[in-house]
Specification:
Layout (H helix, E strand, L loop, with lengths): L2 H11 L1 H11 L12 E4 L6 E4 L2 H7 L5 H17 L3 H20 L4 H22 L1 E2 H6 L34 H7 L5 H16 L10 E7 L7 E4 L1 E6 L3 H7 L4 E6 L29 H18 L4 E4 L5 H7 L5 E3 L4 H11 L3 E2 L11 E12 L8 E8 L5 E7 L5 H21 L1 E4 L3 H13 L6 H24 L6 H14 L8 H5 L6 H4 L3 E3 H27 L8 H4 L3
Parallel strand pairs: 4-13, 7-8, 7-10, 8-9
Antiparallel strand pairs: 1-2, 3-14, 5-13, 6-12, 7-11, 11-12, 14-15
Helix pairs in contact: 1-5, 2-5, 2-20, 3-4, 4-20, 5-16, 5-20, 6-15, 6-16, 6-20, 8-9, 9-14, 11-12, 15-16, 16-17
GO molecular function: ATP binding
Protein name: Bardet-Biedl syndrome 12 protein-like protein
InterPro entries: BBS12 (IPR042984), Cpn60/GroEL/TCP-1 (IPR002423), GroEL-like_apical_dom_sf (IPR027409), GROEL-like_equatorial_sf (IPR027413), TCP-1-like_intermed_sf (IPR027410)
Amino acid sequence: MSRASVGSIGQRRHIALQQLEAIATTTHSFLGPHKRQKFIQDEDGGNAALVSSSARLLENIEMDSSVAQLLNETVQAHQKILRSGTNTLVFLTGIWSRVALDCLHRGFSVSHIKNATTKGLEVCLEACRRSAEILEEMSSKKDSEEKLPKNIKLTLKHSRHFTSNDHQTVKSADVSHVAHGISHGCQDSMNLVLEAYKLQSGCKTSALDIQKLVTCPVSGPSEKHSRVLHGYVVLVSAEQSSVIQHLQEQTLKMALVTGDLSEEYRHVGYNRHAHITHVTDRPDVTWESREERWIETAFKTLRNLSVDVLLVSGVVSVKLKDRCIPYNILVVEGVRTDILKDFSTSTGAVLVSYITQLTERCVGRGVKIRRWREFSRHGGKNDSTAISITAAATSLVTAVITSSIRAELQSLEDRFWSCAHRLHQAFTDGKLLRGAAATELLCIQQLYKSTPGMENPHEKVVMQLMADGWMDYISTLMLNCGTVSCKAEARTSVTRLLRLCEDGEPVCVKALWAPADVDTDSVTSVYDNVTVKFEAWRRALDLVLLVLQSDTEIITGVSEGENVYKEFVFL
């Protein structure tokens, strides 16, 4: 059997890599600042979702293969931590899958593919580390008239992700300039983030604190009504409006409960005693009567301690909520644990797992409630009220996200969190990478430069394939931004630009975007987060190599490192 036919068999058997590439193709329209949204229709339930990111797309589609589930888990893990970069992650997963399949077709062993791609990625990462711009230097280049007031400054430290031993503190960075550079087309959302930072600065915080940032999505008002407010803003039902009317402008007492607030709830790790039978001579001891007794006990506890506001991280029993309304006790469920901890610090309240644990010393003081605005879905009777819960020492800030289109609320909220995390990460890292494809162009340059000095022929081929993958990334980005009419035109532009820079001069990214109706001055002020990019690149390659190795072991029955490994890879 010829080498080509052996490689072809190996390629066909690596179905998982082909599936990764196919899934990644569906997310190409999400790359870049000009995202094209997609509607996802549930044929069985009739529901629909409007998505504009790879993370939301994978959440809403049916996973009919293990590799799709693995991709989704990888993306969601990245999204949970960094809230940005998932579109790049999925795109590169498809690119690296194509590189691996091409290498298999050429007859390369899995170990050669793994070593060469890892080395190629490290070449790119090292080049990016050297080219990253320090925020302090960026701030010094900023025109004085564009700076924020002098009191809006951040203290910055280098991230653990850098290998350099330089731990200098960056002072007086211009937050507005940095925020604009990493807004990535979401300037309205970034403006809300800046407003949130200003409010937190007034509370004497040294930086944007993500843990004390909350969102409150509201359907009805247009996007221009979105704003940032001090405190914890939450929507309460129309039935609780009378409670708000009674409590506002008073100094209130607060209790905090983690977990659900119901008779059946038990904390994580609780073990029920097995093989125990309850015997009683009372015929009325049913589940309903136990629940009623629990509700009465919980209610009396709140009344005896004069609790006015009860915040719960989980779900609250409906009957208990209804029982509290006539006595002007406000119960709010689904509160983030971070929010509970902040109120615990600012009010002196002690978090408890069960309401029966509440004592006088667990109750916090100094809470105030203010009615902000009432909302109605159809212009009729108000069905919800937005209120602000504050304490004297709290630095909690809430971004109220509004939209007249309910389906867009999730996307708007995602954009806000993405901007907030990008700004937070920028000042955590202390450095930024040049955006608008400048970093990817640098990667192509470095891969081409590294190829001639390599003795291993496999590595040379892989470097060229990876450079072609970056070329596809830039071409897709240009196509989505409307710079070119097709990918072929984009590739021609990139190739021409790289040839002009062969003399060692740095890539001039302005020339890449000049043909389109793009402000080239604004292009040079676009930046990307170092950690976000690096983690997305690494996760994408790690996933592809994991799938490649797993597929190979399933096909051959041989684990990596065994002596006969190379003999069976393509059989």
